[in-house]
Amino acid sequence: xxxxxxxxxxxxxxxxxxxxxxxxxxxxxxxxxxxxxxxxxxxxxxxxxxxxxxxxxxxxxxxxxxxxxxxxxxxxxxxxxxxxxxxxxxxxxxxxxxxxxxxxxxxxxxxxxxxxxxxxxxxxxxxxxxxxxxxxxxxxxxxxxxxxxxxxxxxxxxxxxxxxxxxxxxxxxxxxxxxxxxxxxxxxxxxxxxxxxxxxxxxxxxxxxxxxxxxxxxxxxxxxxxxxxxxxxxxxxxxxxxxxxxxxxxxxxxxxxxxxxxxxxxxxxxxxxxxxxxxxxxxxxxxxxxxxxxxxxxxxxxxxxxxxxxxxxxxxxxxxxxxxxxxxxxxxxxxxxxxxxxxxxxxxxxxxxxxxxxxxxxxxxxxxxxxxxxxxxxxxxxxxxxxxxxxxxxxxxxxxxxxxxxxxxxxxxxxxxxxxxxxxxxxxxxxxxxxxxxxxxxxxxxxxxxxxxxxxxxxxxxxxxxxxxxxxxxxxxxxxxxxxxxxxxxxxxxxxx
Length: 497
Description:
Layout: E1 3-8, E2 11-18, E3 21-27, H1 40-53, E4 66-67, H2 70-86, H3 89-105, H4 107-118, H5 123-136, E5 145-150, E6 153-161, E7 164-169, H6 174-187, E8 191-196, H7 201-217, E9 225-228, H8 233-241, E10 247-251, H9 254-261, E11 266-270, E12 276-279, H10 285-297, E13 309-313, H11 314-327, E14 330-332, H12 335-345, E15 346-347, E16 350-351, H13 360-366, E17 377-381, H14 387-390, E18 397-403, H15 406-417, E19 423-427, H16 431-441, E20 445-448, E21 468-469, E22 475-476, E23 483-491
Parallel strand pairs: 4-9, 7-8, 7-10, 8-9, 10-11, 12-13, 12-19, 13-18, 14-17, 17-18, 19-20
Antiparallel strand pairs: 1-2, 2-3, 5-6, 6-23, 15-16, 21-22
């Protein structure tokens, strides 16, 4: 059984691979002197070993929730859902608690697998995201009952399961989305069939394996989440049309969300966004620069809520740019470099996927610019119509648009958000300005005077989700979003006043 060791703040972590399972045991600090911290290469070898072991058999009976075809996967999920629905809330919560534990134990492995497989993002930030999912995703506590009692009896409104949910997940946050969705869906009494992005299938399968193992160990069904070995547009179409899929959840681009909402089934759509960060003359400009760059560069700008562009009131624009360049590791590109970068990241067919989720240093290298490792964001000034500003890039690139005053800044920010109603940000100490902006932008998320990730409970209050349903109005989804309301009336009874 191969194993290696890695030093961490609590001591050493011993990572063991056995039967596709990662076990991590903490070795006390007092034994540190007897151990040697693992090299980066050894960690990479562990990841490669995991990936190599994820060879899925084309066995129609399924391998920890992975099936040869979509019909079989849905049938397995349907059978498992009957068991889930009969379980008590305490039993469901027991499974969820173990999923949380395993997610934190395997956060580093999941993070490294995601980066290695997709080529997107930042390992350290992905580790943080997995811990966030594990700790801040609502479980059964989100499932509540409303009751009315009076002279005419008792009425209950309860949250009941849809049954089997079909979910389409992205390559930008593959395992994070799958784990987050499964926790919420299971809490509501559902099982789920995933059609993951093909570019992140190995990472997605590992996450599904992990959660099904948690369910079995906690006394639940062996399968609470299913998928297919080779997800395609065809398997996605089968899932959307299948009679046993009661609810569809899509986390991805506008195309997939439109397809789900056109399916004829109940749909939850987490679509595109192009979140603007507005900075007015009352803001703490130095802090605004830090917050905006921190939010924009988190996981190389992969989160859909991340700052994609800046709209700054003219009187503070120069100061803001100064702090971003001189204190926050930003590189300002010239007009010529803007043109080069535009031609690289935006092709005639659309966004260059090879650039998505890449670091600022890597993007600059693509246009022949070598910068120090501390450079983490690319900045420039331009008009709102500039393609690197108006298009959602999912890269650490921040174009800044000037506005003569706050009202013009609001107009430009609303235009740049493109009516996605997804996310927006503002840095201001003027409550009236914040209120005016909030009403005008009308997004599911509005972050004030903080980095964008505060909206997910990271440095801010509230719960975490990786399915933000801007198109369909659920906003930040949680377990309750994956349930239907059912009313039970007992007339002229149980009135004891």
